[in-house]
Write a structure and sequence with these properties.
It is a single chain. The chain has 295 residues and is α/β, with parallel strands linked by helices. The protein has a single domain, classed as Spore Coat Polysaccharide Biosynthesis Protein SpsA, Chain A. The chain has 10 helices and 8 strands. Strands 1, 2, 3, 4, 5, 6, 7 and 8 form an 8-stranded mixed β-sheet that branches. Helix 2 links the parallel strand 2 and strand 3. Helix 5 runs antiparallel to helix 7 and helix 7 crosses helix 8. The longest helix is centred in the last third of the chain and has 22 residues. The two termini are 20 Å apart.
């Protein structure tokens, strides 16, 4: 079962018309390097013409990663399938200081579509920055033996081929999604409730990892495109891709296999005013999903 992960690194978009998180250059690179420990899969990473040479230097030269294991390609975010509707409703001034880039969010599905071919049975989107100490506790971080002390915050043992194989088995013949509890530990609003067959905001689908068999992913892409246009034109605003995925899931739950968690935090976090050990004893941390896939 050949598998391909699609991801992207655009680490210099904060302050531009796209918006995005600040100071993520090292985070994204070292995190993606750890994700590559799922070595039975192939990867492709989209980036800008400003960053591609540095990324190739980092992965191919400094870290000696096989270019066939991870292909790095330029993709122009100003010219996507969704650029027209994004420009129709985007508030260009407010996004300059936003930590989220809707152009990347919507492009995830375009990139998935570009990578559906006969060479792979399964295709998944995965966020390049998913491996870091804010999500993964110390017991799964590798803190010694590196020439670059920065790397210890992102190098993890939890991403490996056992996780990959169990992910495929759990996905089975459906689309894999991850849902976060959204009542006790509120995370996000939804699209306009009028779009739901039966409105329910108790869980929110996250956009960091999703996918499945290529035939199912093709159908999922079509659903996303249809729902994106529908809710955007009806409500005259842009929603995060997670909000649209949550809508699709709620209206078509039989199409998906979902893993659930309650909180992003883990036992090594330091949260002012919160008893973290009590919190995580009552709430399932995100990393527990990755841990379950390692059993």
């Amino acid at each position: 079962m050949k598998t391909k992960f699609i991801t992207a690194i655009y680490s210099d978009l904060y302050g531009t018309e796209f918006g995005g998180r600040q100071s993520r250059r090292g985070h994204y690179r070292y995190s993606l390097l750890s994700l590559l420990k799922m070595s039975d899969a192939d990867f492709i990473c989209y980036t800008s013409d400003r960053e591609i040479n540095d990324l190739k230097q980092f992965f191919y030269v400094e870290e000696q990663v096989d270019p066939q294991k991870i292909k790095i390609e330029v993709f122009d975010l100003s010219n996507t399938e969704k650029t027209e509707i994004i420009r129709k409703y985007k508030d260009f001034e407010s996004v300059k200081t936003s930590d989220r880039c809707v152009d990347i969010q919507y492009a995830k599905f375009e990139w998935l579509k570009m990578n559906i071919d006969e060479n792979y049975e399964y295709v998944y989107w995965i966020d390049a920055g998913l491996s870091h100490c804010g999500l993964i506790p110390d017991k799964y971080l590798v803190s010694e033996g590196f020439r670059d002390i920065f790397r210890k915050y992102f190098e993890s043992t939890i991403f490996n081929n056992k996780l990959l194989n169990n992910l495929l088995n759990f996905t089975d013949d459906k689309i894999f999604l991850i849902g976060k509890e959204n009542d006790r530990n509120y995370w996000s609003g939804t699209v306009n409730p009028v779009h739901f067959v039966n409105y329910n905001r108790s869980y929110h689908i996250i956009g960091g990892l999703f996918g499945g068999k290529k035939e199912k992913v093709k159908d999922f892409i079509d659903l996303f495109d249809e729902n994106l246009i529908m809710v955007t034109e009806h409500d005259k605003r842009l929603y995060h891709e997670e909000d649209i995925i949550t809508l699709i899931w709620r209206n078509n739950e039989n199409l998906f296999n979902v893993k659930y968690f309650d909180t992003w935090w883990h036992e090594n976090e330091r949260v002012p005013g919160l008893d973290i050990l009590d919190h995580v004893s009552k709430n399932k941390s995100f990393y527990k999903i990755l841990e379950e896939f390692n059993l």
